[in-house]
Amino acid sequence: MKKYKETTILDIARELNVSKSTVSRALKNHHSIGAATKKAVLDLAKKYNYHPNNIAYSLSKKSTKTIGVIVPLLSHYYFSTVISGIEELAYKEGYKVIICQSAESYEREVIVSQTLLSSKVDGLIVSISRETNNSDHFKVYQQKNVPLVFFDRVCPDLDVSSVVIDDYQGAFNAVEHLIMGGKRKIAHFAGPPMLKISLERIKGYKDALLKHGIPFDENLLIDCGSGLEQENGSIAAQAMLDAGIRPDAIFAVCDPIAIGVMTTLKKNKIKIPDEIGVVGFCDEPIATVIEPPLSSLVQPAFKIGEISVELLLNQINSPIPLVEKKVLSAELKIRESSLSSVLNDNRI
Which among 41, 60, 80, 164 could disulfide-bond with 26, CB atoms 3.0 to 4.6 Å apart, if both were Cys? Predict the structure, then answer.
């Protein structure tokens, strides 16, 4: 197949027998170019479907006005909402956004980070994959002085700007809520151990038990495998029941895990919340639709996206290296899945 040849300013200049600078100024509607010349240039540009080479122009200005974004999965409500926040503020500030997903793959994350760097993005906003345990591909950005911001999932060995939820406090509050409702045998369905968010939520879970004098039982720390999907929660819940482990409450690392747990409990004729209460994390839309509605911690995803852009632009516009770390609170929304014996004004 014959490759399409892009029309250039030089092509238009040659055909009209004028200089490149004349064509350039005519395309920009410069006052120094006469009406007849402007019309001739614009007509020819339209005829040949000419488009300016914005990349070449941006490189000459040492800025592409483009921000790169890498997320684990575009299909997740949380990440898609963060992206909406990123795009909203980025476009207001005159920046375009290139969005990539790692599909929870470290190898793919490396490839797309290299692609974005080659595309000369002005900065990168990223939430790492659950497989990522090496940050060398992001260290290249630092070496080249390309601004970098992490959100939600961060590389703990890199001292860069970040926006995260207080995962520890959110988990602590969720477990304490269950304890205040009379639950004592509380299981935690944990996330992948390579993710800092998983470790912080485990720590919050353990400390809430400790505060209320409940011994930590390793058998109640449930491994959900490497995934954070509904299927992982469902399989782990069935394995727990088959092993004869019967908690009176469950705190799940995320809503999809919690919903998978609830599906399995209902299949086993276990009443929620009377026999087992359940709390999730993230407050995805399905949390209000499932029966009973799921108690969950709300992450302000749109705001996280906006703050990520703010931190990135602060770096881009700063004459010196800049590191800012923002920690946001997660509000506990209490619904019927955890409300047995609980009276709470936060019920919605």
Answer: 41
Please report, rounded to a whole number, the percentage of residues in the chain having pLDDT higher than 90: 78
Q: For the packed helices 9-16 and 35-47, what is the interaxial angle rounded to 10 degrees? A: 120
Question: Can you say whether the dihedral through the CA atoms of 203, 240, 270, 284 is positive or negative?
Answer: positive
Which DSSP symbol is given to 88?
A: H
Radius of gyration from C-alpha coordinates of the chain:
26
Q: What is the predicted pLDDT for the residue at 59?
A: 52
Q: Which of 67, 165, 188 is nearest to 124 (CA)?
A: 67
**Residue position matching structure tokens 């402007």:** 38
Q: Has domain 9-52 been given CATH number 1.10.260.40?
A: yes
Is 70 exceeded by the pLDDT of residue 5? Answer: no
In this prediction, residue 348 has a pLDDT band, given cuts at 50, 70 and 90, of very low
For the chain, what are the domain ranges? 9-52, 66-165+300-328, 167-299+332-338
pLDDT at 8 over 90: no
Residue type, 166: D
Q: Residue 224 in contact with residue 189, Cβ under 8 Å?
A: yes
H runs (alpha helix) in 297-346: 301-316
How far apart are the C-alpha atoms of 112 and 139, rounded to whole Å? 14
* CATH 2.60.420.10 is the classification of domain 167-299+332-338: no
Q: Which of residues 185 and 38 earns the better pLDDT score?
A: 185
CATH 3.30.230.10 corresponds to the domain 66-165+300-328: no
Query: What predicted TM-score, i.e. pTM, was given to this entire model?
Result: 0.81
DSSP-based three-state secondary structure for 254: coil
State residue 317's pLDDT score.
93
Mean pLDDT rounded to a whole number for the chain: 92
